[in-house]
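[step 3/7] fold_predict: job queued, chain A
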Amino acid sequence: YGKLTPLEESPAHGRGGQGVIAQQITERNGDVVAALQVATGHELMLISSNGTLVRTPDGSLIAAGVTLVGLQRDLFLCKLSAEGELDPTFGDAGTLILAVGPSFDAPRKMLLMPDGRFVIAGESKDANNVYNGMLLRFNPDGSWDTSFSNDGKLFLTQFAQADRFVDAAFTPDGGVVAVGEAVVGAPTVVLLAKAT
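[step 4/7] structure written:
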């Protein structure tokens, strides 16, 4: 949820004033996580913790999030041109809905490769209701990059309780290192994995 309010709508108060309520905190809106001063012409994109995006060198945006299909949360991808139009060369007229796992997929981080391919790190719930860390790699048109893990998908399934990736970065040798958390017994531990 985002709100844009002109600065002139905030009245000036002297010292000891009560301030201004800028945002009503509700369950729907959530807490205020940031306040920014922006000017005409600034670009601003709001995403939740269930989404991520990258800007390509030509000014396009590739966004990843989740969408509800029946009772399943699937991966949603779209590509917007620099003008804000859906890119018809990406997926199905600019969008893709993918059931990566059987019931829940959540992207947490997206990385853009120099050749236009992109990687998504996150989590996916398997058929046993266990969350697994996932790394996905796509071609620039949104198709799976089958040169990565044979089908473009890599799942970390070593931990019986749960694990997920929350961030990722490229390594100098072209690999991907992902960091997250894993539940191993009672404690939650830091998870670090590398894929090439």
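[step 5/7] annotate
The longest strand covers residues 61-69.
The chain is about 0% helix and 40% strand.
exit 0
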